[in-house]
DNA sequence: GCATTCAATACTGAATACAAGACTGAACGC
DNA sequence: GCGTTCAGTCTTGTATTCAGTATTGAATGC
C-alpha cells in the first residue's frame, strides 16, 4: 500500500510540447481565446515560435482534457462558456470530494491531517490582500490535499482536471466569497476528519461546495463580460 | 435544460487518427502490448500502415486517458497491470455511480426508466451463451444508461473512461460472475429508481460494485496469465 | 437585386526528412 | 576481470512539405 503522501501526478519536463501545452492551457483557462473561436494552427504556431506538429500534439491533449473542442476537418475551437457544463463539473467535483472524504476518514494518517491543519494555519490569516487568482490556488491546493488523503490517485487526477476547467469561473466567484467563512469551513472539515466524524465532514463539505454552486449562474454572466474585456489582462 | 437522453459523447469520424486511436485502444485494453513494454513508433506505424504523425496523435490521446504511459525522450509504454490503480478505478467508479443514482432519483424521467427496464428485459434471458466480452459490454451499457439519467454529461464522460480502463480485468472477472444475480441487482436498482427510493438504490448499487471489487486481486492474477497467453486471442 | 455556382485561397491532414538525444556494445584502462 | 568510456545505431522530437478539403468571394444568370 503506497502512502497518501506518495501520490504525485506531476510530470515535469521541458519539451516543446509540454511548454506549448502549458501555455495553451493557461490561455484556454483564462479564456484568452474567445468562446467558440476557431484556433488557426499556423498562426498559433508562428505566435508561439514552434511548428505545427508539437502544437497539434498539445492541442490534442487539451481536447481530450476538455479544454478545447475539436471538429474533424474544421480544427480546434475554444470551448463555449457553457453554464450547463460548468454546473456538471461542479456536481462532479462535489461527488468526488464527498466520496473521497469518506475514504479519508478511514485511511488518513494523523500526521497528514495535522500537516493539512498546519497548512490552513499558515495560509489562513490572509496577510494584506491576496488576489483572486491566489485565493483560488490556495483553495484548490487545500481540496487536492484533502483528496490525496483518500489515497485514491485516480480520483485526484479527475479532481485536478475538473479544477482546471472551472478555474476561470472560480476566479470571478472568489471575489465575492467570504474568505474567513471559507477558512472556517475548511478547518471544520479537517477537524471532523481528525475526529473521524463522517457526518460532520460530509455535511460541511456538501454545504461548502453547494454555496459556490449557487453563484455559478451569475458568475458566468460576469465571466462573459470579463472575457470581452482584454484590457483586464493586458 | 437538455434531456438526459440528449447526452451523447460519441464522436464518429473516419480520419486516420481516429481509426488508429481505436485500434490502439483496443490493443491497449486487451493488453496486446505487454505491461511495461515500450512501443516503437516506427514499427507500430509500419504495422498499422500509417505515418508516425497521426500515430503519435493517437498515442498522445491514449496517454492522457490513462491507457498508456509516456516518458519524454523515451517514448510510449504500455501501462503496468497495477492492482492499486485498478482498485482506485473501481473505487472511483463506485463513487460516481452512487452519486449519479442519487441525482437520477431526482431527475430521471419515468419514460427513460421504463426504457432501461425494457433494455434489461430484452437482454436478460441470456439466450444460449454470451461471451464474457459481450456480457461486459451489456453491463457497461446498463451502467452508462443509468448514469445518463443523472443528466450529468461530465460524470458520464469519466465513467466511460474508467470503464474502458478496467475492461480487461472485467472480462476475466465476468467469467465467474453469477449472471442471474447481476441481472436481479440491476433490476432492483432501476425499480428503486422508479420508486424514487434512494436508500434501496444506493445500497444495492454499493453492494453490487463491492462484490466485484472483492474479486479484483485474484482476477488480476489470472489477468497476468492471460496476457502472456497470446493463443487465446489469435 | 438575389441566389447559385465556380474558382481561388487558406487551412487542416498526413507524410517525409532531418536533427537531437538515448541506448548498446565493444574496446580500453585500471 | 570488472568498470568506464566512446562510437555507432536506433528512436524520438520537430520542422517542412505536399495533398486534400472547406470556405469565401466574385461573377453570372435568373
UniProtKB/TrEMBL annotation, chains A, B:
Coiled coil: none annotated. The keyword Repeat does not apply. InterPro entries: AsnC-type_HTH_dom, GntR_C, TF_FadR/GntR_C, Tscrpt_reg_HTH_GntR, WH-like_DNA-bd_sf, WH_DNA-bd_sf. It comes from Bradyrhizobium jicamae. Keywords: DNA-binding, Transcription, Transcription regulation. It comes from the Bacteria. Residues 14-81 form the HTH gntR-type domain. The keyword Transcription regulation applies. This is GntR family transcriptional regulator.
